[in-house]
Amino acid sequence: MNDSQIKSCPNCNKTFQITPEDLAFYEKISPIFNGEKFLISSPTLCPDCRETRRLAFRNDRYYYSRTCDLCIKPILSLFKPSYTDKVFCNICWWSDKWDPLAHGREFDFSRPFFDQFKELLKASPRITMINDNGFQSVNCEYTNDLSLSKNAYNVLSSWYTEDCMYGFQINWVKNCVDNTYLLRSELMYETIMCENSYNCAYCHQVKECADCVFGYDLQNCTDCLLCAGLRNKKYCILNRQYSREDYLKFKENFNLSSYASIENLKKQFDDFLLKIPRKYANLISCENTTGDNLKRCKDSYDCYNQAELHSCKFMTSGDKATDCYDCTSTGNPELCYEALTPDNGYANAFIADCWNAKYVLYSIECHNSNNLFGCTGLKKNSYCILNKQYSREEYEKLVPRIIKHMQNTGEWGEFFPPILTPFNYDETAANEWHKMDEETAEKLGYGWSGETLGSFGKETCTWDKMPDQIENTLDTAKEIFACTVCQKNYKIIKEEFDFYKKQKIPLPRLCPNCRHLNRKAKLNPKTLYLRTCASCPQKFQTTYAPDRPETVLCEECYLKTVY
Ligand SMILES: [Zn+2]
Ligand SMILES: [Zn+2]
Ligand SMILES: [Zn+2]
Ligand SMILES: [Zn+2]
């Protein structure tokens, strides 16, 4: 610890630490060309500002109508109609109907790299939404950062999903609606951080459970209602044991298909949860790990909302990674650094949305490729620089010269600067995780849209005229609703309505965005505080800020409270 450097972040003025282990990592992932290592030096920005800079390249929730610039069909797009460069629909983008190498260019050593990469990005068509619909996914047009899925609607940052709607980071799941961070589950509704579960609703941190409603930190439980901190239980209500007959009678009386009852139960459950102690962090089967909402992680620090990390640091939202720092929204990368969605990637750095890529540097939307530098839109290429093809020998000679050039311009070792993102700051996921006002965003070089998307006042029915029970609710396919929080209009599509009918769930009166934000608000902010256990002297790093009302316990003391 004594050998750590302390740096001051130029963006937020906070200090941050670079440890000897960090320096060893940067050295380990520094690329080697012809026996010469090109050192990636320690970062200039703090971990939060680095994540902000990456997430500014991700628009998750602002969709626009435009036309595909190749097949001229109307499409839904992450790009505003005022974005004048080419945008292709997924079918066209993934097809062989265009040649990304046609936009290739020579590197100009008299100019900065980022300026030249910006011109290449402008000349190359962008994919309308980041998904592999029409290539490896089926019927998943309306999704972002999604792959290897079937029938997904408004599912973000996910893979291996089937028949799912409205989800964020839901992986290996089937028939689920309105979930955030869900793993290997089926028939789940309105859950956060659950895994290996079946047919649960309104649950947070449940694992290996079935048929539970309103649950918090349950493991291997079935048929539990309004319970928290239980293990291997059946037929419990508010943590009290009942007979099967009594449980079923009570459950019936709770009237879970009524909107009014559900709203009452939500309040009752929130009050109940305030009284139960919390474990300092939601770390499940983790070893030598800090952060929150982590499962089966080892030797990983300051990581959030991830499963199966080994020797990682500063990682958020993902499914499996080894030896990585600073990756956001991803699955299965190894030896990657400063990357947005390096899915199944190996030894990549400073990239956005490159899947199955190896030894790729400074590239955006290049897939199934290796040995690329400063490329975009490539799908099965190797040894390209600025989308121009080279031989292996030429590539290995030219890249070191470019890196040396970038060391002189101060670009080497930094992720893409704000001038390269096609999105305004307030359209991006960065603004969701790291809120900024217009003035601050503009000072850092980001654009600002200031637009509120969506329609208002076009509702065809009001909630006071709708039946309280789902059983009495008729087909809503033609109706337009207004969100009771933001008043934005939204629809309940047929598949969604069928799910509520079948699962006996009352229709949601909030728009999908407000539902997502409500779930996200239940996760603690990603800041670690050093605190002491409320019932013993043990100290720990926790995301529960010292002024929060919950009683926060160390693992040992917490385990004494669960039964
Ligand atoms: Zn900072
Ligand atoms: Zn098209
Ligand atoms: Zn809303
Ligand atoms: Zn304790």
Notes on the protein architecture:
Strand 32 and strand 33 form a beta hairpin. The chain contains 12 helices and 36 strands. The relative contact order is 0.11. The chain is of the alpha/beta class and 563 residues long. The protein is globular. The protein binds zinc ion (ZN) (4 copies).
Task: Note the topology.
Elements: E1 5-8, E2 15-18, H1 20-29, E3 32-33, E4 36-37, H2 47-55, E5 64-67, E6 74-77, E7 87-88, H3 90-94, H4 113-123, E8 126-127, E9 144-147, E10 150-159, E11 161-171, E12 173-174, E13 177-183, E14 189-195, E15 201-207, E16 213-219, E17 222-228, E18 234-237, E19 240-241, H5 244-254, H6 259-275, E20 278-279, E21 283-284, E22 287-295, E23 298-310, E24 316-322, E25 325-331, E26 337-340, E27 349-352, E28 358-364, E29 370-373, E30 382-385, E31 388-389, H7 392-409, H8 429-433, H9 438-443, E32 481-482, E33 489-490, H10 494-503, H11 512-521, E34 529-532, E35 539-542, E36 552-553, H12 555-561
Parallel strand pairs: 7-8, 9-10, 10-11, 11-12, 11-13, 13-14, 14-15, 15-16, 16-17, 17-18, 20-36, 21-22, 22-23, 23-24, 24-25, 25-26, 26-27, 27-28, 28-29, 29-30
Antiparallel strand pairs: 1-2, 3-4, 5-6, 18-19, 30-31, 32-33, 34-35
> Which of globular, elongated, flat, extended, rod-shaped describes the shape?
globular
Fraction in beta strands: 25-35%
* Total number of beta strands: 36
What's the mean pLDDT score?
96
Distance between the termini: 39 Å
Small molecules held by this entry: zinc ion
Low-confidence stretches: none
Helix content: 10-25%
Radius of gyration: 25 Å
Biggest sheet features: 11 strands, mixed
